[in-house]
Design goal:
By secondary structure, this protein is of the alpha/beta class. Helix content is 29%, strand content 11%. The relative contact order is 0.24.
């Protein structure tokens, strides 16, 4: 088994844009007035996040963890129905960003999906 992929959203988990201004990390785009929009939004009529199908396709059957502040139950259902490997959709509060508990959850998921004694690529 190969090591899981990590898909990490920037706005919310790394840059807690929804935080009160005095609680935002110094130097973040949200305190400097610069924003980081890197992908166009493409609404889906079924309510599944526009990223979900792309991530499942890219993972191509490999386990993955997706850290974001926008995925929900419909995305979890989509991954369960369309992805043949484990997928962790880990929600991060955009008011506080990533915290120790989030990193522990990701590490636990990675450990549970990696076969001990194998190389970095699971070979």
């Amino acid at each position: 088994m190969s090591r899981p992929l990590l898909f990490l959203d920037v706005d919310g988990p790394l840059n807690p844009y929804a935080a009160k201004p005095h609680k935002r990390p110094v130097g973040s785009p949200w305190t400097t007035g610069v924003t980081t929009h890197t992908a166009p939004l493409q609404d889906r009529p079924d309510g599944v996040h526009w990223k979900t199908a792309h991530l499942v396709e890219y993972a191509h059957g490999r386990p993955f963890a997706w850290v974001d502040d926008e995925q929900g139950d419909r995305d979890r259902a989509y991954v369960a129905a369309h992805h043949r490997a484990p997928g962790l959709l880990h929600h991060v509060n955009p008011r506080i960003g990533l915290r120790d508990d989030d990193f522990r959850a990701l590490a636990d998921f990675a450990r549970s999906r990696t076969v001990p004694g194998r190389g970095a690529r699971g070979e």
